[in-house]
Amino acid sequence: MQFLSIGANNKCANDVWEFIVKELQQLKSDNIDYSIDRVNINGTESIVCKINDNKEQVQGNKISKQAYRALMLNVSNALADYIMISYEEKITKRIVNANYFYFSQSERKDILKSAFRVIRNEDKSFLNTLLQIRRRNIIVKKLMDYFDGSNSIILDGFVNFRLKDYIKDLEEIVEKAVDNFIMEKEYREFIRLLKYFVDIQEPKFQNIHIIIDKDSRYTLLDEKRREITNECIKEYMNEISQGEINYDDLLVSSLITLAPRKVTIHSIDNFKNKELLETIKSVFHGNVIICKGCRLCKVENIMKREN
Known about the structure:
Blueprint (H helix, E strand, L loop, with lengths): L2 E7 H20 L4 E8 L2 E8 L6 E2 L2 E2 L1 H22 L1 H12 L5 H15 L6 H24 L2 E3 H8 L1 H37 L6 E6 L5 E4 L9 H9 L7 H12 L3 E5 L7 H10 L4 E3 L17
Parallel strand pairs: 1-6, 7-9, 9-10
Antiparallel strand pairs: 1-3, 2-3, 4-5, 7-8
Helix pairs in contact: 1-2, 2-5, 3-4, 3-7, 4-7
C-alpha cells in the first residue's frame, strides 16, 4: 500500500480536507481506486490519501507507479491551491511587518493593500495572471519533489522552510508595492507644493484656455480668448534646443506662474499625457473644465494677441 499523509493543525484541517477531496475527484474519472481518511494524533490532524489494492492497479504485486504519481499530482494541486488562498496574504503581511517595520502602521496598511491587489489580481491583468500561475507552479513542483522523497508532510513546516522561491516572489511583489507607495507619496507632496504656490499667488487671470495641437504642443489663451503664450515660455524655449523642449514642463510652469482661477482644456483628444492631465486637475482642484467641443478646439481658429 502506498499513501500520502498530510499533517495540518485542527484550525485548517477541514479546509485542507475539502480542497483534497475536491481535487481527488479527478482520479475517479481516470478509473483510479483511492481512499481518503482523517487521523488525529496528539492534536494534529493527518489526512491520509492512498491508492487501494486491486487487480487492475497491481502490477507484479506493486501498486501502479502511474496511479501513485496521479495521486501525488492531485494532492499537490490541492495543497497548492490551499496554500495560495490561505497562506499567501499571511506571508505577505509577515514580509511587510518584518522588512518594512520603519513605516508607520497606516503606511504599512497601504503597502499591504497595494500588494494584495497584485496577489489577488484584482485588475485581471495578463502579467499578474502569469505571476499567479508561476507561483502556483513553484508550489506544485516543490510538493512533487518533496513527495518523491517522503510520503508524509507537515503543511506549516513545508510552507515555512521549503518554499523559499515562492516566498521570494512574494517579497518582490511587496518590494514593488513599497516602490509604488514611495512614488505616490512623493507625487502627493509634489502636488501639495504646487497647490501651495498657486494659493499664495494673486490670480493673474480669471480663466486660462489650453489648446493642444496634434504634436502635443500647447497654446494658452486668456478669458478674452487672446493668445498669451507668455514671455517666460518664449524665453525658456530660446535658451534650449528644439529637441530638448519638454512642453509638459512648460505647461505646468506657466499655469503655476499665471495662477488662474479657472482652467479650460480644449482639444482633449490631443492630450496624450494623462498623468499631466491628472496633475493639473489635482493642482487646480474643482476649477478645471474639459471642453466637450467648441471653435477653440480647432487650432486654426485661435485669435492671435494684438501687438
